[in-house]
Design brief:
Layout: H1 24-29, E1 41-50, E2 53-63, E3 67-72, H2 79-86, E4 94-99, H3 108-111, E5 115-118, H4 130-138, H5 147-153, H6 169-181, E6 187-191, H7 199-214, E7 218-222, H8 226-232, E8 235-240, E9 243-248, H9 250-255, E10 260-266, H10 274-280, E11 314-319, E12 322-328, H11 331-343, E13 350-354, H12 358-366
The chain binds adenosine-5'-triphosphate.
GO molecular function, one term: ATP binding
Subcellular location: Cell membrane
Keywords: Antibiotic resistance, ATP-binding, Nucleotide-binding, Transport
Length: 371
């Protein structure tokens, strides 16, 4: 089948005709054999410049087999450029990149059958029918996944005979994902895999990613969906201005320091929160002093100039009689809340505290300004 309008870069490039693809058992058995196995992807001091401007500027990143490594960052942070260097699609200007122990540019041929790539824009040839494309890619591998089973899982049969050009964005993404994994790769790069997908498709993608992880595949995922990262990622790298500014498990990141949490109060409607917020934000009290002073080892020290997030307690009556306060939740803050209620003779139906979310951490680290 001619792929006449194939773009310069497409997921089928990840395939090599007649390539052997390791089974999950072989992958597990091989874990101790090669120099490349404990770390699937290793990026050290990566620099990439465009027009003299370093868009990746000394970036370090590691991804391991059997784990999902999420790369988060604002628009233009350098995530895609980094991933493209790992995929061998861009040559670094500095630093080293190793995928399965090999140089992705120099050893591209050897890596092709072992690396699955799902590009941000799908990168698929547009004149080919969806299922034909998948069969074509599968035929390039010695032991591909059964195409029909994969198509079923990702719901491709409903538009199997539609050309890629006519697919919706979410449908195209699903075909691109199928093409990236059909060859049973050891490493999969997924650049915003579920962007534009409906909730059902997203769920199917997440299930597939979990299955790949269980099979020992190293998955590198860029995403803007914090719930996706929080749900899937074993390890998170937050990238900004071409560098990793924080790194750790989701738990490590959300537990770090005394950053913001929430206090939710259910009580009588119409309470004026101003005096409470004033108390909580009074500098003489220690209540807000710890805010944004993250010292936990897994999180790298961030220069204060980059900490442009929220700088004190804020709160509002989010619905009648429900108040949400956000700030540095600690025992003293909670005591101030209950004292404030007591002073007003208000018996709250509930006062609950919540932990920081990954999105809170992300905004803390990268600020709230648009990029
Ligand atoms: N081929 C190119 N030529 C010039 N500049 C480029 C090129 N590719 C990317 N850039 C620039 O490099 C910077 C990083 O882009 P990159 O696509 O890596 O960011 P990103 O973190 O993936 O962003 P997004 O979340 O929007 O996808 C941006 O400022 C972008 O404009």
């Amino acid at each position: 089948m001619p792929l006449s309008d194939a773009p310069a870069i497409d997921p089928a490039q990840a395939a090599t005709a007649g390539a052997t693809t390791p089974t999950a058992e072989a992958r597990a058995a091989g874990a101790a054999t090669g120099p490349d196995q404990a770390v699937a992807v290793e990026v050290r001091g990566l620099v990439k410049r465009y027009d003299g401007r370093a868009v990746v500027d000394g970036l370090d990143l590691v991804a391991r087999p059997g784990a999902v490594t999420a790369v988060l960052g604002p628009n233009g942070a350098g995530k895609t450029t980094t991933i493209e260097c790992c995929e061998g699609l861009r040559s670094p200007d500095g630093g080293t990149v190793r995928v399965l122990g090999r140089d992705p540019v120099a050893d591209a041929r050897a890596l092709r059958p072992r690396v699955g790539v799902m590009l941000q824009d799908g990168g698929l040839p547009t004149g080919v029918r969806a299922l034909e494309l998948l069969r074509h890619v599968a035929a390039m591998y010695a032991t591909p996944r059964p195409v029909d089973e994969l198509a079923e899982r990702l719901g491709l049969h409903g538009f199997a005979r539609t050309t890629v050009r006519r697919l919706s964005g979410g449908q195209r993404q699903r075909v691109a994902l199928a093409a990236a994994v059909v060859g049973r790769p050891d490493v999969v790069f997924l650049d915003e895999p579920s962007a534009g997908m409906d909730p059902q498709s997203r769920r199917a993608v997440w299930d597939l990613v979990r299955e790949l992880r269980a099979d020992g595949v190293a998955i590198v995922l860029t995403t803007h969906l914090m719930d996706e990262a929080a749900d899937l990622a074993d390890h998170v790298h937050v990238v900004d201005h071409g560098r990793v500014i924080a790194s750790g498990s989701v738990r490590e990141l959300t537990d770090a320091g005394t950053g913001p949490g929430t206090v939710r109060i259910e009580a009588a409607p119409g309470l004026d929160l101003t005096p409470l917020l004033t108390t909580l934000n009074t500098p003489s009290t220690p209540l807000s002093a710890g805010y944004l002073s993250s010292q936990s080892p897994p999180v790298q020290q961030i220069p204060s100039t980059q900490r442009s997030g929220q700088e004190g307690w804020v709160g509002s009556e989010s619905e009648a009689g429900v108040y949400t306060l956000t700030g540095a939740v600690d025992p003293a803050a909670l005591a101030a809340v209950t004292a404030w209620l007591a002073e007003r003779g208000v018996l709250a139906r509930s006062v609950t505290t919540g932990r920081r979310t990954l999105e809170d951490v992300f905004l803390d680290l990268t600020g709230r300004n648009l990029r």
